[in-house]
Request: fold
Amino acid sequence: QVRLVESGGGSVQAGGSLRLSCEAFGYPYSSYCVGWFHQAPGKERERVATIDTDDETIYADSVKGRFTISRNKANHTLWLQMNNLKVDDSGMFYCASHRGNCPLRLSTMDYWGQGTQATVSS
Reply:
């Protein structure tokens, strides 16, 4: 059974940094899409960044230049380095993975973690 477990959330002041981690357990696939998603209170879940099977990386405009996604394929670990955090970055962060290429509808990714909370104060 595949499980994704996020960690690294917390509370920081605006301008601070957090590094999120996501470990995949029981993951049998060697070629897959991975990504981080953000859900602010009362809003829909949105992509922060994804890495496709060909290592193409896509970032949301709101995080370009501030966040960096990376992964280690060998041990199925995913990270999100978040710098210069803003109050609007507060919310739950979820990692997700999908067998094969990233789907057109990212909400249909195969596996999701439970999320980790980030709170950014002014």
